[in-house]
Amino acid sequence: MNFMSEKCDDFSRLLASKNPVPGGGGASAYVGALGIALGSMVGNLTLGNKKYQNVEPDIKVLLKKSEDLRIKLTEFVEEDAKVFEPLSKAYGLPQTTEEEKKNKAFILENELKNACEVPVKIMECCCEAIDLLEEYSIKGTRIAISDVGVGAAFCKSALLGASLNVFINTKLMKNLQRKNDFNIMAQDMLDKYIEKADSIYKKVEVSLRGEVNG
Question: Is the pTM of this model over 0.85?
Answer without folding.
Answer: yes
